[in-house]
Amino acid sequence: MRTISAVLLAGLSSASFAQTTPQTPNAQGDVAITIYSELALVEDVRTLDLPSGTTRQEFKDVSAAIRPETVTLEGDGIEIVEQNFDYDLLSPAQLMAKAEGQEITIIRRNPATGVETTEKAKVLAVNGGVVMEVNGKVEVLRDDGQPVRVIFDSIPPNLRARPTLSVTLDSARAARRPVTLSYLSNGLGWAADYVGVFDEEKQTMDLQGWVTLTNSSGTAFPNAQLTLAAGDVVKLNQRKQNQYQNNYNNPYGGNGTEDGGEEKVGDLYLYPIAARTTVATAQKKQISFIDTSGVAAKRGYRFNCQWLCRSEEPMSAESIIDFSTGKKGGLGNALPAGIIRVYMRDKGGKARFVGESKIAHTPAGSDVKMVTGFAFDVKIKPIVESREQITEDVWKATAQYKIVRDAGEEIITVSQQRRYMRTKMRYIVTNARNVPVVVTLVQDGLNGWQRGTRVTEESITGEQRDAQTRVWQVPVPANGKTELTATILTDY
Predict the structure, then answer these.
(1) Alpha helices, DSSP H only, in 13-99?
(2) CB count, 10 Å around CB of 130?
(3) Domain extents for the chain?
(4) What pTM was computed for the model?
(5) pLDDT value at residue 92
(6) Which one, of 162, 286, 271, lies nearest residue 217 by Cα?
(7) Bridge partners, 489 (sequence order)
(8) Ramachandran region of residue 446, left (φ > 0), alpha (ψ -120 to 50) or beta?
(9) Rg (CA), the chain
(10) Secondary structure (DSSP) of 138-175
(11) What is the pLDDT of residue 143?
């Protein structure tokens, strides 16, 4: 087992990390970045020569996607008076936009003779193009590759070559001292991807995990100390998510019972990367963080039947790879949320892709059931054999409902005869494989109005998981079928 903190950027060529410093000077200091799924905390320690009293300091090369309201500046004997983030970056489009209403110089070159002519032009508007006044006439600046250059007399004061945070601070004394600039930034994120090679005969799986870092913040961070944070943090104005974090791709993940030894802060798991690295702009970078062989795993089938499910045609069972993140299973680690892609080897030993499954943040000691596909040759046909009403002598007496209106001023009592039903289900499970299989058959929707559902007969003894769910393990012989029957009494 290798964790992020123990891997020196394993599995990557040295060329991936050849650029340890940017091509232009960088004003950043000692940078440490904690990266969440779509957010990052940047801590930048810089040494400043501060005079006594009020002074204005510029912090160049902050993230272009900085959230200015999250900025904090810590240092001995200083207080922040005012701060501004200059986010208008120097570019041809921004230069032209800032020149609206002003004079610029146009240099045109005759493509045939190479002769250049210089003219003064006033920028009238920049809106989907540049409209100018040249020698008393209105022209549109052509953008068709013709040899035209535009010269500006100066750079507008509010345009910056690099993202810059300007801070007015009050220093208690004149001294050279380190200060720590901290802020949250969008545009930095990471995701986990896993590759599992499953050996059905040995009932083991080799699992390798990769972290993919992305940087779309517009700023490079050379030689940074990185820490990855796995977990879900709540951010205001974020897209609303299901509070229970339902994982529709893989709804069968278990609850963990072990501590994998990862560092934790609150409910976040921290994965420090041992070696410093450069996170360049517009770059994706992969780092290996799990490489484990022989994890105990097995393949199975599952079919979920909602209440009164029926089908004219047989339906495929889910194909599931079942493994544990516990120490006894050979892993003993928590798995950050990501996608597991599963391969199996054919008779010639070639690895074949058999499916993928998305997992949520999974603690150590969890039983993970990955749905990788739907079985071609293991099918289930659910049939409602009969459904009939039974008497209250078989079940229980009349129920009463009270309806309250107008804040309790009017009470209407309605007496209603409850309907009690007997339902007989038959599930035909077929197996076209030349080996026997066991299908986990799940019947949902059993909790009625009074949660008094009763299973009075069943051809295979089932397990009542909760008030709503009964589960049967249905053995099916090779190239054969098994029929499961159940009689269910409900009050609906």
Answers:
(1) 92-98
(2) 22
(3) 92-151, 188-377, 391-490
(4) 0.67
(5) 75
(6) 162
(7) 422, 454
(8) alpha
(9) 33
(10) EEE---SS-SEEEE-SS--TT-BSS-EEEEEEEESS-E
(11) 65
